[in-house]
Amino acid sequence: MSSPSISVPSPAEGEINVLEHIDQYLQVAQEGDASDIHLGVDAPPIWRRYGNLQPVWPNARKLTPQDTERLALHFLSEPQKRTLMERGDVDFAYANSFGRFRTSVVRHRLGIDMVFRIIKTQVRTMDDLALPQNLKLLTQYHNGLVLVTGSVGSGKSTTLAALVEEVNQTRHDHIITLEDPIEFLLESKGCHITQREVHTHTQSFAAALRGSLREDPDVIMVGEMRDLETIQLAITASETGHLVLGTLHTANAPRTLDRLLDVFPVNQRDQIRVMVSESLRGIISQQLIPRMDGKGRALAIEVLFNTPAVAHTIREGKTFMLPGIIQTGRKLGMKLMDDSLVELYDKQIISQDEAYSRAEQKGLMRMHFGR
C-alpha cells in the first residue's frame, strides 16, 4: 500500500498522538540518526540512538493494541498478514520512497509489536568505514572462510557489505549473497552479483547455500551461519575453491571458533577442526560503542589472521591460547578487542566506564586506568 505524504509533528506541539502511517515513524527515526525504532503495545514510540533505547518524544502517548494493529495491517502485504496470523511473527525487508528497513512484526500477550532496523542503503567502502587496510587482504583470497562476528547491532552487516564491495570493485568474479532479509542493494561493478533473500527467493540459508554451489560462484556471502547444516556447507564450500564470507553472533575469535566447532557432533569435531584450521582466513570481531561526545558510536575491532600457530591451536582444540597468539601477532596486523578499547579510551573517544565494562581482562584494564 502506498504511503501518504509525510507529515511529522514537532515535540513542541503538546501531547503527540498516534501518527497515521508507519512511514511517518520511519522518517523520524531516519532523520534522527536512530538505528532502530520500536512500536509496541502499552509503550510510547521508542528508538535506539547511539546504542541507547529511549522515547522518541517525551510527550507521546502510549500505543494501544488497536493502534499497533491498525499501523501493522496498513502496511503489511496480504501474504505477510497471513504469515503473521498463522505463525505469530513475520520478518522481511520493507522499502518505501526514502529508505529500506529490516522489519519484525510479532503477536504477543498484549497485541502486535513492530521493530524496524534502519538500513543505511548506500554501501560504504572499507575506506569509508576506516577499517584497517590489512583487512583488504581477506578479500583477495580465492577460497577459504572469513567471519565477521559481534552482537546484534554491532555493525556486522555493514562490514560484510564493505568486504563484498571491495571484491566487487577489485575482481571479476561471480558473487552470490544469501541474506535474511536483503539489506544493501549491491550494484555490479567488476563482478556479477546475485542477491537472494531467505523466505522470499529460497527456503533457508542451507537450501540457498546448497543451490549456490551449482551456480558457478567465486564468492559466497552468508548473512548468518545459524545452524549445523549451514555451517557445514559453508566450511565445505570454503574448501572447494570458494571464498565464503559469513557472520556469527560471537564476541571474539576464541568464542567464534568454539561456536563453530561446538555445533558438530562430538565424533566429527576432530575432522572439522582440521578442515577449519586449513580453510579459515581470518576473523573480524567488532563492537559499536557510544562516543563520549554523544556524536554517534565508535568501532572497536578484534582481528585474527590464520597463521601456522593459529592453525595448530585450532587443530589441537586449544582456542584459549588464541589471545596470546593475537597479542604476539601485532606486526601481522592482529589486534585484541581489549587493545582496541584501550586505543579508543586513550584518544578520549569512549569513556572509562565503557572501556571497562566491555573489556575481557578487567584487571589489566584497571591497571591501565591507574597509570
Description:
The chain has 371 residues and is an alpha/beta fold. Helix content is 34%, strand content 23%. The chain has 13 helices and 13 strands. Strand 12 and strand 13 (297-305) form a beta hairpin. Residues 1-5 have low confidence and may be disordered.
Provide tags for this entry:
13 strands; disordered N terminus; 371 residues; six-stranded antiparallel sheet; alpha/beta; single chain; seven-stranded mixed sheet
Break the fold down into its secondary structure elements and pairings.
Layout: H1 22-31, E1 36-39, E2 46-49, E3 52-55, H2 65-75, H3 78-87, E4 89-96, E5 99-107, E6 112-119, E7 144-149, H4 156-170, E8 174-179, E9 192-197, H5 205-212, E10 219-222, H6 228-239, E11 243-248, H7 253-262, H8 269-279, E12 280-290, E13 297-305, H9 308-315, H10 322-328, H11 337-346, H12 352-358, H13 362-369
Parallel strand pairs: 7-11, 7-12, 8-9, 8-10, 10-11
Antiparallel strand pairs: 1-2, 1-6, 2-3, 4-5, 5-6, 12-13
